[in-house]
Design goal:
Distance between the termini: 35 Å
Bound molecules: nicotinamide-adenine-dinucleotide, ligand LNCXM5UN, zinc ion
CATH superfamily of the largest domain: Dehydroquinate synthase-like - alpha domain
Helix content: 40-55%
Strand order of the largest sheet: 1-2-9-6-5-3-4
């Protein structure tokens, strides 16, 4: 078991990464002195519940905690105000009080949804993340919690840091292949924004990562979490540096929104977004090899890097204008300078984005 720390100055919290952690959830709650007198709400989805809910409930109950569970439908559409309200109803009917804990057991969807419930219920209760996807090495750390609006992704949310992250990597073995690939997009992103050696390592370990080799996965996830923890520790509220975690997201979020939160998985959308960011950088003078290396790395994982031809350029641009990354009439893009290094650029024009969209429609997908 490895422990990383997210250090936020006045407080810090641990990320525990290892096998068999869900079965020990009760002891982790006791170690963190979480109240046994107040009910614990476990939020999960209908893919994860049949696999892992019982062991978490049993572990907590064996340690003397009373649990209430809410199972939502799996998928991005559950990050909605409607589902948020349904989870709130369960919390109120279940008698949660101010000392209660909300647990997110699942991927980033459940993490963001349950986290927003924890941030809002009685103006904020304790939150525990129990991530079960590869992608959630990113989403479970850093405290961004939100639901979507049909016009824009993650539009309604808060910053609400977890008390701890209990990352049981054994759960990853049951992930569907498409989710494995999508989750690895955020791992690659951490290499691309912060650490060229780690990006190289991801490329060199592509097959082992895709095959869910346990030691390789733990190394990659620990490295990814530690990069995320360093960035968040430096800038919790995205006043500056933290924006780099948005590589690929300016365009990626627009793709998710216009796809009705069903056409693209988050990792797939940001993979296309990272290819687009590299292309914009090349069009601004960077060496073309930067784009080619980015695309080779992502497509090695079977991730999409071309713009599907049926997508309407105007719709993509319109959706980008609703995103949080459109500020003071400017589009904020994270552009690569080299592999492992990015810059935050706020003067990318709509014309540059249009050109990248058109060029990416003409590219061939390399898989
Ligand atoms: N808050 C943040 O900082 C942050 C960071 C990155 C992404 N996100 C958000 O995370 C979401 C994507 O997260 P995700 O990719 O984990 O999606 P997800 O939560 O939808 O999980 C992916 C799929 O895998 C299933 N699943 C989860 N764990 C499983 C397991 N162990 N075995 C079998 N099936 C399992 C789920 O039911 C779902 O169908 C997006 O909404 C994105 O915006 C948030
Ligand atoms: O933690 C962050 O900061 C990130 O940007 C991580 C992203 O991978 C994540 O998708 C995040 O939810 C995007 O944030 P948003 O503020 O652009 O909605
Ligand atoms: Zn993301």
């Amino acid at each position: 078991m490895r422990t990383l720390q997210v250090d936020l100055g006045e407080r810090s919290y641990p990320i525990y990464i290892g096998g068999g952690l869900l079965a020990k959830a009760g002891s982790y709650f006791e170690d963190h002195q979480l109240s046994k007198k107040s009910p614990v709400l476990i939020v999960t989805d209908d893919h994860v519940a049949p696999l892992y809910l019982k062991q978490v409930e049993e572990s907590l109950e064996n340690s003397g905690y009373r649990t209430v569970s809410k199972v939502v439908k799996a998928g991005e559409k559950s990050k909605s105000l409607g589902v948020f309200e349904a989870v709130m109803t369960t919390a109120i009917e279940g008698g949660l009080d101010r000392r209660s804990v909300v647990v997110a057991l699942g991927g980033g969807v459940v993490g963001d949804l349950a986290g927003f419930v924890a941030a809002s219920y009685m103006r904020g209760v304790t939150f525990v993340q129990m991530p079960t996807t590869i992608l959630a090495h990113d989403s479970s750390v850093g405290g961004k919690v939100a639901v979507n609006h049909h016009l824009a992704k993650n539009m309604i949310g808060a910053f609400h840091q977890p008390e701890m992250v209990l990352y049981d990597v054994e759960t990853l073995q049951s992930l569907p292949e498409r989710e494995v690939r999508a989750g690895l997009a955020e791992m690659v992103k951490h290499g691309l924004i912060w650490d060229a050696e780690f990006a190289d390592w991801c490329r060199d370990h592509t097959s082992k990562l895709l095959a869910l080799d346990a030691d390789t996965l733990v190394y990659g996830l620990t490295k990814g979490c530690s990069i995320k923890a360093q960035v968040v520790s430096d800038d919790e509220r995205e006043l500056g540096l933290r924006a780099i975690l948005n590589l690929g997201h300016t365009l990626g979020h627009a793709l998710e929104a216009i796809g009705g939160y069903g056409e693209f998985l988050h990792g797939e959308a940001i993979s296309i977004g990272m290819a687009a960011a590299a292309l914009i950088a090349v069009n601004r003078g960077a060496d073309r090899s930067l784009y080619e290396e980015t695309v080779a790395l992502l497509s090695g994982f079977g991730l999409p890097t071309v713009m599907p031809k049926h997508l309407d350029e105007e719709q993509i641009i319109g959706a980008m204008m609703h995103d949080k990354k459109f500020k003071e009439q400017k589009l904020v893009f994270i552009l690569p300078l080299s592999i492992g290094k990015v810059e935050i650029v706020s003067d990318v024009t709509v014309e540059e984005v249009r050109r990248a969209i058109r060029d990416l429609k003409e590219e061939e997908q390399h898989v």
